[in-house]
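Quick one:
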Amino acid sequence: MNQLLLFLRDELTPFPGRLNVALRCIASAVVVIVASMTLQVPYLAVSLIVVFYVTQSNVVITRMIGMLFLAGTTLAIGCTVLLLKWTFDYPLLRIVFASIIFFCCVYAMRVFQFGVVFFIAALVVIYAQSFVDVTSNAEGIVRATLWVWVAVCYPIALTLVVNSLVLPLEPRQQLRRMMVSQLVTVRKRLSALHEGASEVFSAGMFDVQASVTSLQKLLRFTAMRGKQNPLAEARDLATVTAVSNLYLAASNLHPISDRAGQIAMDAKSLGDGCATLADSIEKDVPFSLSPAACETSVADMPWPLVAIRGSLRELDAFAVAQADAMHVPPNQPVLAADAFSNPVYVQFSLKTLLAVLVCYVFYNAAGWQGVHTVMLTCLIVAQPSLGASGRRSILRFWGAVVGSLLALLVVVFVLPRIDGIAALLIVVAPILFAGAWIAAGSERISYAGAQLMFTFSLAFLDQFAPTYDLTGIRDRMVGIFLGVAVATFVQMNIWPEGEAALLRRKLSASLAATAKLLAMGQSTQNQTVIGKQRMAAWAALSDCEGMLLRVALEPTWREGEEERVTLFANSVFVAARELLLAADSLRIAFDATETRLSAHVEEHIRIFASGAVSAIEAYSTGLSTLQPSARTPDLVGREVTLDGLAGHDARLIGQINRVLLAVSSLPEWLAKDTSLPLTLPADTRHE
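Output:
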């Protein structure tokens, strides 16, 4: 229970931008409710779920998702109408063709970059079959199907208008706010050092990882926005790189007892430089460093302050017209490279179709029309891995439970007192806001918010008049529970697609990226390359964290095996994160103090870094093999290189020791210790 409360506290805590997303979502939802109730547009619950899905953290993603939903809905409605026209009087033929279309859509959902288009098409095609089983009125079914298109498309238009006019949040605006926020933190640490505080609070591993990866994502969205020229994009990445360096260097600040007076003056000067940078970011003008910050001497200055000074001076000297483009977003292929060679995609489509058909047979055999959600659930919880499917199933179930309970309470105790649209909005707005707040959170909980809102809306807002029928709430919950059970059983027993082996490959790639960052053979003048490597390393580690959480949720019949795999992977992940933080700090410390080191000492450090890189790469290679053979790196004997640093910066020695300890803490992972799948799952983008 304590773990659950801690989880809910962490996931429901406000963070920058969350309130903005929730307010935009609830504003669009209120407009849609008023419009649908006034004009009697059916499928209000569908309209609201579209609002929740389309409203994203910034206008770039919002518009992209909106366009994809429009394309997917149009494709789905077209396929459904044509299918009904040709096979309405032939039930067996209709089911066969519907299954073929469903299979193709699920397959395309896995292999195409914009899989959401085909997900919507598959959802509508299979859901339309429940219409035919209820009535023989062909015209009524076609009209109901076309109303679905209206119920989806007009909320998208309203949502785009609201997101553009009400509290619009541009990705570049988000990026600037986040950089200013991190600079405020840097200034606080410098101020604490200047004022002689007994403690200089430092950032932890989670904080540094979140800050770097968040800036990277926002920088990519800023480039996607299309309003910036290459020179402005170059300046953006130069600024992001500088802010990341400043934040990491400031996280390594410690109280200084000796030479406190001079260090305090240096800290104050550098703090003023950070304030100038924050002001230039807020005003969106080129950064110009004050002469006072440029004149600070690096003699006897601690390396974090040297690194801060160097980052500010490098950004000040940055030429926006330089030839090397600072940031070019990677172009992801529209179609997966192994779309026609990897059998995993066909297997995924077949088992998803099987689960849906089993539920369809049960749905018709039982004659229980209220549990039509059993078919939709099988598709909704179908994810590229058991862990992702398990998490989606849990979030769908508990979101539906909470939404159903809220609908039950409102129907029984509040509905008799509602006498107008204003009272209706007063009742539903807080519940919808709660769902929007949850949906605006991390992926570990966001789907539960959308499911809470959708279940509540189906029970309470699906008609244009008050309803007191509670059987619908019960039937939907039964359908969701049965759908989750059938889908989980099929995915666990037919071609189970775990991510344990893929997780090892991801961890291996993360360690390889860290090794590149640790290599000291690069010129310190080429901070662009180093900045890109830093972002790539932290992004790879962030991907590993998300996959590790999914692997931990993978259901299995083999007792104890997944626990062992998760334990090994978590141990490697923790060690890899500490190693990346240590390598990043050593990289900055070395760049900051390189000019003060003798050639002999510098060579010692490069030899140490080269040995550490070789050890990490060997461990990474062993981790990525089909049967893991990663042994703990043995760096005994390399410590002799530390003798050459006697009399030099003790902080630099500490960073080298930290890297040495981090490399030596990588745990041994051998095939004899655990049983991993012999086949690797598809490394898909649609997780």
